[in-house]
Amino acid sequence: MPASSRSSWFVLAALCLAVFLVVVDNTIVNVALPTLAARLAASNATLQWIVDAYTLPFAGLLLAGGELADRFGRRRVMQLGLVAFSLFSLAAAESHSVLALLLARAAMGASAAFIFPATLSILNATFVDSRERATAFGVWGATVGVAIATGPLVGGYLLDHFWYGSIFLVSVPIGLVAVGASLVLVTESRSPDVGSLDARGLLLGVLGVSSLTWGIIEGPTWGWHARSTVLVLAASVALLTVFIRFERGHPHPILDVHVFSNRRFSGSAIAIFVGFFCLFGFIFVVTQYFQFIRGYTPFSAGVHTLPFAVVTALAAPVATKVEARIGARWVVSFGLVTMGCALFWVSALSANSPYLGSVVLSMMLLALGFACISSPATATIMGTVRPGQVGVGAAVNETTRELGGTFGVAVVGSVFSTVFSTQIAGVLRSAGVAPGRIAEAQASMLRAFAALGPARVRALHPAIVAAFMHGFEDTCRVVSIMTLGAGLAVFLLLPARSR
Fold this sequence. Notes:
By secondary structure, the protein is mainly α. It is 82% helix and 0% strand. It has helices at 5-27, 33-39, 44-72, 74-93, 98-112, 116-126, 130-161, 166-169, 171-185, 199-222, 227-249, 263-293, 298-304, 306-326, 328-347, 355-384, 390-430, 435-441, 445-493.
């Protein structure tokens, strides 16, 4: 894509606006979870689905989005995705039931899948100079981090002043501005080498990922040893196995699995998956911690996550430049270890930990680790693929990113639900609460308050808070151990010098 050095930065601004729109909707709903639980009578599992209804089709269709962008034009596909995203945001804003909201969120996620890989492909083609490209990836990564942390802030403000549908309505003007900016600033481009569309591979991939996520989310409700849980998880493994074998033999696969034989590519993909797994899982539980335990309003909860955005915005461009000098192994591994240590610190928080102390410092450390993963690993992936594989590289990068976020919410939510339901059942059983009310209270913190009534809530409040904190602490420790292990694995996998 021909572009002067000066005009390239205007292109980057337009792409960052589209990226901001897609990512902010990933997290803006998190701060609304307590509100949605109250207005729509949603359980913990339903809250997980409200988040994952967006990320699941987003992840499942990213490969198709990257393929279609290369085939029919990256700007054209991105613009169609932006228009569809805006329309379905209107539908979500007017949703008055769980089913309507889930359907609208799923349609928004599907639309986002045709926006994100196109932005990354355009960025990679626009910046041909390696130093400028490193800076551009740093700005792109900073935009992702800022959008992730800005979502709860914007969502909290809107929830404090308007109805819950306003958190979706705000996407409409941003989407329209992004469409106009791309028309004026972005030049059309496509891949010169495209084959037939791999429809069977697409279907197998979507079904495999969807069934795996479904089983993880519903595991605590069904029971981990229940036949339905085992069957769904077994089916997902079978579908994904068939998908990989089919893709290896297809002349034009939707996912070229051979790119994972490159250690730079596979190591960076693992790092991105784990980084977003941790981040989205952390956001899922910390927004509830801020509101249920510390008593913050939705807007106040968003404000208290703002240090994450500041640190990410400052650290991401620097981390990408450092990666270009010393290689991804040191920077990305450092990021994973830092996130693991931050989560272990978070697990030690209490209900009364000072915000201007352990809470904000652990959050800033988490942001530093995330900044050292997202942009450098993305730059490494896009620097690894050949020009004809730009769409594949962008799609795989975003698929691992979204799958990480999806599974982060699913796994973290499942671990938290399992621990919380066990703890709260023991507390209420000792207090002589009827079995029917215990079963209702196990669904979520808000359901526990509603099932017990004001008098019992006052009497049992410390025990209910302790049950929540037990789940919060165990969840953060589990994810911390996983992240530290991933840091070691990525360090061994990535070459000492990646460029």
